[in-house]
Specification:
alpha/beta, TIM Barrel, 2 domains, 8 strands
Length: 325
Amino acid sequence: MSLLLAPMEGLLDFVLRDALTRIGGVDRCVSEFIRVTNTLLPARVFYRVVPELRNGGLTLSGVPVRPQLLGSDPACMGDNAARVASLSPNGVDLNFGCPAKVVNRHGGGAALLDEPDLLLRIMSAVRRSVPTEQATTAKMRLGVNDDSRAVECAQALAEGGATELVVHARTRADAYRPPAYWSRIADIRSAVQIPVVANGEIWTVEDAARCRTESGCQSLMLGRGIVSNPALAHAIRGETDGLPWGSLLAHLATFWALVCQTQQRRQKAGRLKQWLNFLRRTYPEAQDAYMLVRTIHDPQAMDEWMRRAGWLESLPHKTGLGKPI
């Protein structure tokens, strides 16, 4: 069994990856996507999105982070995969699952699931460009408007050299609306000879168990569920019933310190409120805190509120990743 931390644009960046992997239970992370168009990106772009590359491709708690590329031109994707592979991650991931309209309009993400032949060419170009000792993985949805070509797409990616496939069990049209159709992942598993990881709508231990039963997958990728319940990976493993709010406060303090160190001023307060908004699903204390800070926009005022609340009494963790802004 492996438990992976999902790539989530605008949410699960290196700051939140740092916090969640400190709490633990996660075996590997995938970065938010790096958009590839018609140019070879400089190394600084990869370092900006995945600063863990400066730490051997690991979070500060030692969890591998796999950079994810998004694009539709096979040659350009291959060139950029070679460049990011030269920065020594443990592999390169490809995005065929993003449902965002702005991405899909430009032929990226889930929009490519109507073109299995193109998936094959992209995956093949990336596999040829990446050293054999590094993994080439992919994440896909079940399709664009329906799931009729899900198996065909998965087979194309496997044939192209994918070493592992994560399947988000919804179509682009489904967006993030429940349910997730985990049983369709079982159909994909039976059609390919590579490891398949199930993803989508896993909020609880019970969800994880049902997903495993219906998909046949032992390995899972966790997204919004683990953001809402940071101890979810440990709970799925049967190692804990949860993380007490008092213990989570130290991680919130470290998260805030790294936000203040690395994010632009206008983003800082919003980042804390964004995580608190997810945490309200699990913690009544997060609900209370969110209601008290939701009108705070100035980071200094947020810092003062956290100090008054006793959240910043100690910062037990090192905060070293990311370039200060």
